[in-house]
Write a structure and sequence with these properties.
This protein has 214 residues and is an alpha+beta fold. It has one domain: Cyclophilin (Beta Barrel), CATH 2.40.100. 17% of the residues lie in helices and 20% in strands. It contains 4 helices and 10 strands. The strands form 2 sheets. The chain has an 8-stranded antiparallel sheet with strand order 4-5-8-7-9-3-2-10. 38% of the residues are buried.
Length: 214
């Protein structure tokens, strides 16, 4: 997914970045027991205050992603990727993403997470039919990772650090960061062509904003 797009970017750099857009290996799957999930403890008063501090269009289709440096709000696109949005919410409500690693992070390109093994080889066990749409891959775009097969997205997703136009129409865009992108920028980067991270940062928790004071 891609190096920061600037006026000075060369053709060779663009080709290199496209070559970095590697597909996922055949996934293993893992069902996480609720006891294995990290839970966020918070008072009801604080939860209610947090919920109303974010001005989202639809709290049912917005996520609060807690990172080590701060809170990130993701507003989802149920109009163009309804099945992906529903599955993401299902996984979020099951606590699936809590504690998962940002295993692949390429500076100027994207941060990828959602593998229960932290290696990029795992998923939740449910493949999703592609919902490719006209939403472009811009800074803050949230999109599904997949293998070479269009209908292979599962639980892994990535957040773009910069515009990645070569991904448009080939990956399912299901949301965008509307607050806290500066905290996404602080996610630890990986090294090497594939951006695999040593001692990676993790998702502290993810919640549907409508559920925060439930």
């Amino acid at each position: 997914m891609a190096k920061k797009v600037t006026a000075e970017k060369t053709t060779s750099e663009t080709k290199m970045l496209k070559s970095e857009t590697k597909k996922l290996a055949k996934s293993k799957t893992k069902t996480l027991a609720q006891s294995d999930v990290k839970q966020l403890n918070m008072s009801k008063t604080r939860a209610k205050k947090i919920k109303h501090s974010y001005h989202v269009k639809d709290a049912e289709n917005a996520l609060l992603l807690k990172l080590k440096d701060g809170d990130v709000v993701i507003e989802m696109y149920p109009d163009v990727a309804p099945n992906h949005v529903e599955r993401i919410k299902e996984l979020v409500r099951a606590g699936f993403y809590n504690g998962l690693k940002f295993h692949r992070v390429i500076d100027g390109f994207m941060a990828q997470t959602g593998c229960p093994y932290g290696t990029g080889t795992g998923g939740s066990g449910k493949k999703l039919k592609a919902e490719f749409n006209s939403k472009p891959h811009m800074r803050g775009t949230v999109s599904m990772a997949r293998s070479m097969f269009p209908d292979s997205a599962d639980s892994q997703f990535f957040i773009c650090f910069a515009e990645c136009p070569w991904l448009n129409g080939q990956y399912t865009v299901w949301g965008e960061v509307t607050s806290g992108m500066e905290y996404v920028d602080m996610i630890k980067r990986g090294s090497g062509a594939n951006g695999m991270v040593s001692n990676p940062d993790e998702i502290i928790s993810m919640q549907v904003i409508a559920d925060i004071d439930a």
